[in-house]
Amino acid sequence: MRYLYCFLFSLLTALVAQAQPLFSVSFPASATSTALDGRVLLLLAKDAKTEPRFQISDEADTQLVFGVDVDGLKPGQAATVNSSAFGYPRKSLADVPAGEYYVQAVLHRYETFRLKTGHTVKLPMDRGEGQHWNLAPGNLYSKPVKIRYNPRTKQVIPVVMDQVIPPIEEPKDTKYIKHIKVLSKRLTEFWGRPMYLGAHVLLPYGFDEHPNARFPLCVFHGHFPADFDGFSETPPPADMDTSDYVPRFGIYGYKKRVTQEAHDFYKQWTSKDFPRMLIVEIQHPTPYYDDSYAVNSASMGPWGDAIMYELIPEIERQFRGIGQGWARFTYGGSTGGWEALAVQVMYPDEFNGCFAACPDPITFQAYTVVDIYKDQNAYYLDSPHKRTPRPGKRDYLGHVKCTVEDMNHRELALGTNSRSGDQWDIWQAVFSPQGPDGYPKPIWDKRTGVIDKQVAAYWRENYDLLHILKRDWKTLGPKLAGKIRIYCGDMDNFYLNNAVYLMEDFLKQTRNPHYGGEVAYGDRAEHCWNGDPTQPNYISRLRYNSMYVPKILKRIEESAPKGADLTSWRY
Fold this sequence. Notes:
Elements: H1 2-19, E1 22-26, E2 36-45, E3 64-73, E4 79-81, E5 86-88, E6 99-114, E7 120-123, E8 140-141, E9 145-149, E10 156-160, E11 163-164, E12 177-183, H2 185-191, E13 196-202, E14 217-221, E15 245-246, E16 251-252, H3 254-269, E17 278-283, E18 296-297, E19 301-302, H4 303-318, E20 328-333, H5 335-346, E21 354-357, E22 391-394, E23 400-403, H6 404-414, H7 423-431, H8 453-463, H9 465-480, E24 484-489, H10 497-508, E25 518-522, H11 537-540, H12 544-559
Parallel strand pairs: 1-10, 14-17, 14-20, 20-21, 21-24, 24-25
Antiparallel strand pairs: 1-4, 2-3, 2-6, 3-5, 6-7, 6-8, 6-9, 8-11, 12-13, 13-17, 15-16, 18-19, 22-23
Helix pairs in contact: 5-9
């Protein structure tokens, strides 16, 4: 009887599976005649306010995405997306309620890399868009079409990706902003194909008129900058539209405020008393993310050394940088905040100070809300009886927007093997050892959240900045005294202040030497607070340059070695 029941159950399951719809996704030869590797993303949206590919997020208003990997998909050949495809926020197409939807498909193209390590991996090389699958030039996509979907009806729904995302135009040089691109020998050797580093360089006022001046260098770390951000020679038009509303800040006309701040910085930059320095925004997108995190990595290669010993010297050569550690500084927020502190710690003699605002987790005891060393599961609190989800994002009042599981499942739908191009995947790509398949070893099971303690131990020894400082303070401390400054809102949207508290506890008790820097918090300030308590967060987040450059000048005056050039650039 038991065997008969099992047989009937299996038969019923098979019949139900046969009754479910599937999507047949293809592209014509008119889009490309080449067979393609990549990830087919099927998108379903309940409205047409914008294309479905632009409606996927961690927030409650997200629409649906389902993904499958393809290898050598040929023109006219169909990729099948059915109930077995992993999805977000519905895990399966079988869970999607019946109704009308706008359907769209995108093929996120992968390139084959033959790494120095001997592994072959397939990854989406950045093509100038900053690792956005829905904007990447060369990706194929379909026009949205309205359909009626019923998960209990057998049907084949064809989707044809006959559109190609066009190339992105590179920025042009101006009087003050120059662009540089360097072929990296180190990265080219690791990745097995030409790899470049780029930068947008803001020249000081009077650069051409003072040919004998040499300048300090400020490296402004952050996400992939399309051009130098926050600097505009022209003010916003008087009639600029101010109807845009930003719920996070509760204000209208924020775009005009941003444009005005950029022009105000230009006026500061060209004023009589503002310090004359070079400010550099680095372009270093990787096949995993819009940014390398500016350190060496087992899975991504020697980005830290490439930036430090190839790109920065070339910038200083071309634009008359002083080229010594006392005259180099680094700052940034979020990703850039982590990078600023990390490069100061890992290259302690090469920089004279870091200003780390709202840094990504600087200790993995507080990997946002997860302690990867003690916790067993990243998605739920450890409990024998309850499943209490860990929050992933909040507003300034603590209202939860999504969970850690939500964020990771969205990434898993977008890409396996850390290929989503998003936040948790890049942390894993940077911090993890390389797995036997050549991809980063997962810190946890992306579906279940179960943490791998061996990987966690590797993270601690190599990238946990608090652990590294504690472990090596005897040798690092004398090189870092007076150089560390950290700022964070105490209601950071991603709980990044938790790690800052732990870092502050250690720094305050340092001796021989005392760290001699600064840690400060913004009351109810959210992500990207830069350390200015006199301005609301929506203004302070736009003033990194004007906030930090005067502090850098003060640090130079206090710490420059005897005989240092303190005059040629002070005109």
